[in-house]
Amino acid sequence: MKSINDEFLEIMANYQGIVHKVNLVYFRSASEREENFQEIMYQLWKSFPELKKRDSLGSWVYKVAINTSISRIRKASRIEYRPKLPDICDKTVDTAEAISRNTSLQILLEAVSNLDEIDRSIMLLWLDENSYDQIAGIIGISPSNVGVRINRAKETLRKLMNTANH
């Protein structure tokens, strides 16, 4: 029988990519991402014993990662965002490294980072192919509101990316 520690570590090995994606969208510097990664892991560990539905682990990780990131930004109003993504990834993380090599994806992440907190979260979840119902459950809004916000955000992103390409 697995201990709770072993079970948590196994789950985090499978789902830590979600945490890295959230960090890439919300934080610019490697040090900010590392600090936030640690805080997200702490919050996940703290809430793990109360997690009832083990079949919705991805949604749980997203919800904790997004809420922790937004809370950190709100608490640390001193965080300044730069107009470029000079330091998009920590080279030790395969997912982040792959993203840093993809110029189109960098432009998309730059555009997404210019959206407000909720739309940024919604677009991150949508780009990761979550359904409107899943996104609604994670964010805490109705599925129809998710659809409206995605359509508006897509138009904003289209404009931002066209500006970046010209």
Helical coverage, percent range: over 70%
Order of helices and strands: HHHHHHHH
The CATH H-level homologous superfamily of the largest domain: RNA polymerase sigma factor, region 2, helix turn helix motif
Task: State the CATH topology of the largest domain.
Answer: Rna Polymerase Sigma Factor, Chain: A
SSE class: mainly alpha
For the largest beta-sheet, the strand count, sense and barrel status come to: none
CATH architectural designation of the largest domain:
Orthogonal Bundle
Report strand %.
Answer: under 5%
**What is the approximate shape?**
globular
Describe the protein's architecture and organization:
There is one protein chain. The chain has about 170 residues and is mostly helical. The protein has two domains: about 1-80, Rna Polymerase Sigma Factor, Chain: A (Orthogonal Bundle); about 100-165, Orthogonal Bundle (Arc Repressor Mutant, subunit A), CATH 1.10.10. The chain has eight helices and no strands. The protein starts with a helix and ends with a helix. Mean pLDDT is about 80; it is low at about 80-95.
